């Protein structure tokens, strides 16, 4: 299974609630560019996103390249989610893909995206940085710590 991990695009400054922050024009453009350049022709089977507005908007941009899919929302992708719990859930999803070359996209936030990339690839702390609209591709036969191979990591 290939897991694409996308941090939401640049968002507006927090005015009222962090949950309600929306993407800026730069965030929308950066996200569209990286999705088009890196994964628009990949065999995605699922798109999962955090329920926060900026992640949903980022996922909608990705969805425009995959019209047959829908965005599935989970609290497992909120910024403060536990990366180990997320990996356990991903491993269960992975069991559905055994014997196939399928991919899924996760749209989330820091610190979760950075922790997940580094944990899957067996790297310490902030070894692989994840700025806004950063997109990582990780291949994993088993979704567990130190079991993923980083294929590439691109930044907006």
TrEMBL record:
Statement: the UniProt record of this protein carries the keyword Membrane: no
EC id: 3.1.3.-
Gene3D superfamilies on file: Phosphoglycerate mutase-like (3.40.50.1240)
Keyword annotations: Hydrolase
InterPro entries referenced in this protein's UniProt entry, alphabetically: His_Pase_superF_clade-1 (IPR013078), His_PPase_superfam (IPR029033), Mito_Ser/Thr_phosphatase (IPR051021), SixA (IPR004449)
One Pfam family cited in the UniProt record for this chain: His_Phos_1
Molecular function GO labels: hydrolase activity
NCBIfam families reported for this sequence: sixA
PANTHER family according to UniProt: PHOSPHOGLYCERATE MUTASE-RELATED (PTHR20935)
Protein name according to UniProt: Phosphohistidine phosphatase
């Amino acid at each position: 299974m290939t897991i694409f991990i996308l941090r939401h695009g640049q968002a507006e400054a927090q005015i009222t609630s962090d949950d309600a922050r929306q993407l800026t024009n730069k965030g929308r453009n950066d996200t569209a560019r990286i999705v088009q350049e890196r994964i628009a022709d990949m065999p995605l089977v699922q798109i999962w996103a955090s329920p926060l507005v900026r992640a949903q908007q980022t996922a909608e941009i990705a969805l425009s390249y995959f019209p047959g899919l829908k965005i599935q929302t989970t609290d497992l992708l909120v910024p403060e989610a536990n990366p180990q719990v997320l990996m356990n859930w991903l491993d269960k999803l992975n069991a559905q893909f055994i014997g196939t070359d399928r991919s899924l996209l996760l749209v989330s936030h820091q610190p979760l995206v950075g922790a997940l990339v580094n944990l899957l690839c067996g790297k310490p702390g902030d070894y692989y940085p994840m700025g806004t609209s950063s997109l990582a591709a990780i291949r994993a036969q088993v979704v567990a710590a130190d079991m993923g191979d980083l294929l590439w990591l691109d930044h907006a």
